[in-house]
Amino acid sequence: MRLSSIFTVAMEDKSPSGDTITFLGTAGARFMVTSQVLASGGLWLNLSGTEILLDPGPGCIVQSTKRKLNADKLSAIILSHRHLDHSADVNIMVEAMTQGGLKQHGRLFAPADALETEPVVFSYLKDCLDGIEVLKEGKSYSIGNVSFTTPIRHIHPVETYGMVFTTAEHTFSYIADSRYFDGLCQSYGGELLIMNIVFLEPLPIDHLSVPDAKHIIMELKPKVAILTHFGMSMWRAKPWEIAQRLSQQTGVRVLAARDGMRFDLSQLDDY
């Protein structure tokens, strides 16, 4: 990694205020998660004064506490889908958000199959929340000063949605787990694109790979793209080097997320 790249990442980690996204973990797929080569805590969004937790995988409570992020300040928790690497810590995070269940507070957003057939949230915790909303294709939702849509259902073994978030200042997309399919690119946009890229090369498994990432970036042309949720093949290939090559190939600034990295959305105003 070049010195300029190291300096840029360091500046992102230290941004003190504004609209920020903190990567509590960057592990994707079961072997990376169970080995904890990388952490698997999800994303913590601080947008227009509204704090939102997205996909609290195993270790979220540890990683968020380590980063001095206070769960009782959360307004909502969002699950893109019910797989363990995205939902395993949802119960402890609901408890933390509601101060041990003593304060009714916050909302939970999740697909129907994460709440019904084999729910990932314990029954006793549901009454601690201000509400639970079911994610559906093509719907819009609001949390404080933030709105988001779930534009299209992804191709994944369970019901899965990505999101497009809109604040007073910015619009950005989160493409959750999926294989590539027609209509994926057309469903997302904005200045920032965050993608879960599990594989170095395409495999017959419902996850995106580096060639998919290149195609999506070239189609959408965001100001910045951030790769995360790495499988073992991605990690061994050094994601930061992959991001640098994608930057050169696409003409878009591409970053590889790191555990604990904090990205300040005000950087987008420089493009």
| Rg result | 17 Å
- Molecular shape: globular
Helix-strand category = alpha/beta
Output mean pLDDT.
93
Query: How many separate helices?
Result: 9
The helix-strand sequence is HEHEEHEHHEHEEEEEEEHEHHEE
User: Sheet with the most strands?
Assistant: 8 strands, mixed
Any low-confidence stretches, pLDDT <50, length ≥5?
1-17
* Strand runs, count: 15
Helix content: 25-40%
The span between the termini is 22 Å
Q: In what range is the share of β-strand residues?
A: 25-35%
How would you describe this structure to a colleague?
- By secondary structure, this protein is α/β, with parallel strands linked by helices.
- It has 9 helices and 15 strands.
- The chain has helices at 3-13, 30-35, 60-66, 84-87, 90-97, 123-126, 210-220, 232-236, 239-250; strands at residues 20-23, 43-47, 50-54, 74-78, 107-111, 131-135, 139-143, 146-150, 163-166, 171-175, 192-199, 208-209, 224-228, 253-256, 262-264.
- The strands form 2 sheets. Strands 7, 8, 9, 10, 11, 12, 13 and 14 form an 8-stranded mixed sheet that branches.
- The two termini are 22 Å apart.
- 46% of the residues are buried.
- Mean pLDDT is 93; it is low at 1-17.
Task: Set out the fold topology.
Layout: H1 3-13, E1 20-23, H2 30-35, E2 43-47, E3 50-54, H3 60-66, E4 74-78, H4 84-87, H5 90-97, E5 107-111, H6 123-126, E6 131-135, E7 139-143, E8 146-150, E9 163-166, E10 171-175, E11 192-199, E12 208-209, H7 210-220, E13 224-228, H8 232-236, H9 239-250, E14 253-256, E15 262-264
Parallel strand pairs: 3-4, 4-5, 5-6, 10-11, 11-12, 11-13, 13-14
Antiparallel strand pairs: 1-2, 1-15, 2-3, 7-8, 8-9, 9-10
